[in-house]
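During the reporting period the student researcher (J.K.) took over the structure-prediction task from the postdoctoral fellow and processed the backlog of single-chain submissions. One of the processed entries is reproduced below for the supervisory committee.
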Amino acid sequence: MQADSVDTTKIKTDSVTTPKIITAAVETAKLATDAVTTAKIINAAVETSKLATDSVVTAKIINGAVDTNKLATDAVTTAKLINSAVDTSKIATDAVDTAKILYHDARLRSLSIGNGNTLAGSAALFVNGNTGIGGNIPGAKLNVNTGTNENVGYKSNASNASLQWVNDANSAYNSGRIYANPLLINPGGDGNVGIGTSSPGAVLDVAGAAQFGTAPTKSTFSATGALSIDTQASLQLGTTFYVGNNFVGVSTTSSLIGRATYDWVGNSQSLFQVVSNTSRANIAIVGQASAEFTMWDLGSAANVGAFRISTDAGITTLEARADSLLSTPYTFLYLNHSTGNVGIGVTPTLGLLHLDKGTGVGQVTLDGSTGGCLMIRDTDDGGWTECDALDGVMTCSIDADGVCD
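J.K. obtained the following structure tokens:
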């Protein structure tokens, strides 16, 4: 035996040995009939006659394509394409096919993007995420961009659906406009509208100042509810109360023509007018304990003073104050509600008319172009006694009609 080699006498007759190799190849005589041999290779390719009937061979290729009659029945082939579209009979029921596309106007009956859910119903577009029109970075579920920093977005804000006008960075609000004719908000009357508040308590609830009209006819409600009226504006409550045109009117909406339009001496228009076209005019001042009406003269220092009519504890008084709130008021007339007695300078206790100067001399003056006269009813209620004075002498005589003459 040669070194490092197997003794050929010890190898089985059918084994592959060097003498049985032709140029390092397996002797074809020893290969199985169906084996692939060089003789069975055409141009280094497998001889097609030795390939299985269903195998893909060059003879079964049409212009580089697989022979369609060798493809499975359900396979997609050129013959099964309609105008370059997939034959709808071979498409799964839920797949998008030509029967499910309105190709005439390129609109989809239904389309789902991003959520992977099965669509329910028709004419629906489902988008999981934000949608932008005119912009590539939508900051809302629906964002429409019409220019630089001009975005209208529909999104959720504080768990409420909101329509917002924002800049491109979605960091600040912009001014927005809504045009409609008419513009209806809750036309069914089944909800409140809030401005500056998220919980309106009325049909229109404004948290802050509100202005109506334009200068000089505007009216403004302050944030605290105060109402201010500009120079030419007016306030009217039905036909009862009117403020405007530099006067206040009760039961009148315009300054009257005649005496009522002027003050006591006819110098200027009355600032306050009470008018009754069908009955007597009435002003009522009501207080739980007392009531009063005060007038102040704020003219020159020499003329400053006040006049007050008040009622309290069954007595009506007329008082005057000389110059300021620090001065002592002078009560010059009292009227007792229960007795009808009148007191001048004193609460009446001594008859129908009670006069009392207080400190100093009480004085009653009767003066006239033809003298003074005092008429006194007779005690028998049968006539009058007239007293006249002349040159320091008072003369009394019977008078039939009770008229000084």
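The committee noted the following: The chain has a mean pLDDT of 74.
J.K. will present the remaining backlog at the next meeting.
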